[in-house]
Amino acid sequence: MKTQPLTAVLSLSLLTACGGGGGGNSLPADKPAPDNPNTPTPQVINTVDVGDIKLPPNAVARPHVEIQKKTQEALDLVNQVRAEKGLAPLRYNESLSAYATLRAQELATLNAHKRPNGENPLDEHTLTGGGNNAAVGESIATGSPFAQNTVEQWRNSPNHYKSMTESAYTDTGIGYYYRKGSQYLHHWAEIFGSSGVRSRYYYISPLYAATIRAAVAKLTSYDADGRLSLHGMENAANASNHRGIYSTAQSLALDDEHTIILRPHQAAGWSYQTFGEIASTRGGIPETYLNVGKPFIPTETTTLRANYKGNAIGDINQSSRAIAEVSASVDYSSNSKTMTLTLGNSQSGNLDGSDLRRDTRLDFSDTLHWDSGTQRFQSDSGHARLYGPNGEELGGQFSRSISGGANYRGAYGAKRIEP
């Protein structure tokens, strides 16, 4: 693809806010955040345990509506500059906007026309389409929270002004990002493209643990002994990403972009718990894993020594599916409060669950210790809870590095077996 030269290398004079202050930002964060991150709250034992939330590869969290208004204002101002020269307005391009949002986030780490991984931000791996005469460009700015000040900075910079008034550009996307503690706090990026140019990035609505818990809780009920029932879900056996131990999976749309997928506990012979995931509807990519059930919390006088068998499901870098057999031993007494977990006979394959093959990289053992604060077993790479009136079942999650630096994470469930 033919590209326009990078628009400018910013100098310090272009990085500071132009009047009106700008040392802070009261806008909501434009990325998922922990629930009530700054407010200590009493430990609450949830019936829906939500793991770490990861965006799919190439997905960018859709900004909060207030930030969308801010970037729309910037686009309107850029088009006013173009109108002064009799040029057609630039069209909003969501793909370019997603990339511009990502670039604004990257500027908080490296304030340059260079990506943190060393790539040229305008290379053909990132921006495609538009034919042999495609033209692309980038403008960046930092320091001001205001669209008007930022566009004025660009207007007063010859290279940035040239980009804003380039007749070859027809489409654009603008991103804004605020990061507390960064050098300039406020970061802006605009990506330009001629007709047909698009980026490999796309927007997706961010997930929040509280929203997931509330949605899944509506699908569950429990009897007096804590036996789990699922309601309102549909059989998802024919879906492409529900093979193997998910072959009888049930699902329900969380929103237009995400699906709740749970393994029916009855299919595994379980009564008190199950596990599942929240997957993107675009590609069925798992974003987070779930354990569902009413936890059993042993007391200081409880004695429990038991073995468990079950299975696990997971992913490798959100690009490959993995399944495994699970065995666990719990020793909970006044002298020891530990759980030993082993995943074996592991297999990996395509994300849709096809072409599964033995993968010894995924076999591992771990020792988890009881944490009285979280009231669950924990280690550096996972956690687990007991379920049922007397700990008849258990379930948990793991996340660990495997050979090559890949991340292997997932969820599991298991049932007590007789000695």
Automatic annotation (TrEMBL):
CDD domains recorded: CAP_bacterial
Gene3D superfamilies: 2.40.160.90, CAP
Location of the SCP domain: 75-189
TM region positions: none
PROSITE patterns hit by this protein: PROKAR_LIPOPROTEIN
Residue span of region Disordered: 23-42
Protein name per UniProt: SCP-like protein
Species per Swiss-Prot/TrEMBL record: Cardiobacterium valvarum F0432
